[in-house]
Amino acid sequence: MTENQPIIDVADLSVEFVSRDATVHAVNGVSFTLNPGEVLCILGESGSGKSVTLRALMRLLPSQARVYGQVMVGEQDTLRMSERDLADLRGSEVAMIFQEPMVAFDPVYTVGRQIIETIRRHDKVDGPEARQRALKLFERVQIPSPERRLKAFPHELSGGMSQRAMIALALACSPRVLLADEPTTALDATVQIQILLLLRELQREFGMAVIFVTHDVGVAVEIADRIAVMYAGRFVETGPAREIMGNPRHPYTRGLLSSTVQGQLRGQRLEAIPGSPPDMTQLAAGCAFAPRCRHVHPACLREVPAETWPTSDNMVRCLL
Amino acid sequence: MSSSHPKPAGIAATGSSDLLMVTGLRKYFPVLGGIMNRTVAQVQAVDDVSFSIRSGEVLGIVGESGCGKSTTARLLMHLIKSDAGEIAFDGQTVGDGDGLELREMRRQMQMVFQNSYSSLNPRLPIEETIAFGPKVHGTPTDKARARARDILGKVGLDPGQFIRRYPHELSGGQRQRVNIARALALEPRLLILDEAVSALDKSVEAQVLNLLLDLKQELALTYIFISHDLNVVQYVSDRVLVMYLGKIVEIGTVDDIYERTRHPYTQALLSAMPSMDPDKRIETPPLTGDPPNPINPPPGCRFHTRCPFAEAVCAAREPELEFSLATDGDEHRVACHMNTADSGHTRVPA
Q1: Which residue from B64, B174, B273 is facing A188, i.e. has the nearest CB?
Q2: Which ipTM score applies to this complex?
Q3: Which whole-number Å values give the CA distances from A100 to A97, A155, A250, in the listed order?
Q4: How far does the CA of residue A264 sit from the closest CA of chain B (Å)?
Q5: pLDDT of B182-220, one tens digit each?
Q6: Percent of chain B residues topping a pLDDT of 70
């Protein structure tokens, strides 16, 4: 894998939302690379900037957002592309799936029509052929009676079914990168695992690279090759899933794992992280986790810890 | 209540120490349609549910969306009216002429909701929100406020700092603490927690769970803990009730449910739990498809359309909730033909 050119190379990405009253520093200098066929999970709590990071890659942010840095997809910098080139890239090179498929689909057209339209927009094939391909996709994502479901409107599909339809839509033009923003969070447990397994299967089959955003450690472990733990708009730790779970280095990662309930002894108190996440409109100078960290010392409050690399695979931003 | 129904285990076992006893609870919601806006179908949200809860225990209720767990909670609180069934609190029937009045029941039983924001009045400062309940129940204003400050301290919020604040000035975890304080202001004995920690971030969820378990000790509370998170339910519950499409499919002690699982649906729920270990990933999904629509649920056993062990009898007849054939004691009950001695299912243990 290291031989390959990374398919996505993000350098020092920052996003601010500017309004009259305040500036929210949602993302504060995120850098990473993604190799072809690799699954990266961005794990973080609400407000940590994980979804904003994902959307910034495709420039799907509202107009009051200011985006800095560089996002290379292949040879192109998406932050500096024209809207027209970007429209070509979205869907064909990089596709995205969302938490609420019901909202992602246009409610007044059938799902089949929306998929066929996508295929024809990018691949310049005729109607019947596009229809054939849409049908194949529906079969591939295991939608029962696909012929009938193509003619269904989004509201006629159940939660799991519409998520499958959205995956089919995302895969319509065989993208090299799939961006997934909490695609299983709104689903029931027994359906969530079906969708995760389907994504894992399709990822292998198509050889796609995937960036998967979630707040759920369990979900991350099911799907990720590598995990990036995000806090207050920064990656505080990245590494192979096995390393993050088995040997977490950053105090926030450790706190997150120990406060996640998973077969702890009943009656034993949970090791919660004290306090609550920081206010993103006024971040302090030092490490953003310092106010909640039990190992804090004066140097933590002076400046943001730089990236350190304990091994070539693991990055951690902590002075300890 | 149908006469064929066995008595809930709790009655026989412990008699009058049951704090809450529910028998034959049922709620169908009408689906209106057509030009005359008539009832064209019914959602069988809760169908013939019976259980009991003992003083001082935590009963977990689990199930997927649409299984009726939140409707059950609302029926218990009389926030919606049940079609049939009886609810008795501490031996007194709630709501019928000579039993416990609704007003008195709500002193004894309170509820915390999932959405911490919509369940607080945005125009009231925290102190007023918490003091509101006691005032309605006749506590003088200054006494009610004093109690509000006292309880705010108990849930870990500094009264001096918080009493004047409004809900929008608080974080999610703080708001949920206020909701717990509001529920506790009437000094209830039973607290229904309907997905009370589900919307919180993990690091905050752990804080609130610790708080709930501390409060239970300190105030001798009884909890009904509704959640879709099986890990959390296992951690907090003494007994667990599993629901599927409006029916109880399995109920028992936490070890009965997690270690001596009998119902295939419970089994599927448990094996859908992520392992948290990259070397033990789930390889095959335990179930296929979505839960069926609770409008016109499948005949017979409602789970038979997704059950890997379904046989002819499962589609033909609905299984009763019966004592587990595999467990000693009178706690563990299962509604499955594989657990019914003369059902004709080939997998009934000999």
Answers
A1: B64
A2: 0.85
A3: 9, 12, 32
A4: 7
A5: 999 999 999 999 999 988 888 889 999 999 999 999 999
A6: 94
- Residue A277 to residue A236: CA distance in whole angstroms: 14
Q: Which residue of A has its CA nearest to B265?
A: A190
Token digits of residue B140: 């003088």
**Structural fold of domain A8-93+175-316:** Rossmann fold (3.40.50)
Taking CB atoms and an 8 Å limit, are A158 and B290 in contact across chains? yes
Give the model confidence (pLDDT) of A244-267 as tens digits.
999 999 999 999 999 888 766 777
Check CB contact under 8 Å for B64 and A262. no
Residues of chain B scoring pLDDT < 50 = 1-16
Taking the C-alpha atoms of residue A260 and residue B109, their distance in angstroms, rounded to an integer, is 29
Tokens 């006469």 — which residue? B3
Q: Which DSSP string corresponds to B183-201?
A: HHTT--SEEEEESTTTTS-
Q: What's the CA angle centered on A22, arms A21 and A26, to 5 degrees?
A: 150
**Domain ranges, ordered by start, for chain A:** 8-93+175-316
Query: How many angstroms from the chain centroid is the CA of residue A170?
Result: 14
Surface of B (259-298) touching A: CB under 8 A: 268-269, 272-279, 281-291, 293
CB B212 within 8 A of CB B223: yes
8 Å CB contact between B167 and B150 = no
The pLDDT, as a whole number, for residue B290 is: 83
Q: Between chains, do A221 and B173 touch, taking CB under 8 Å as contact?
A: no
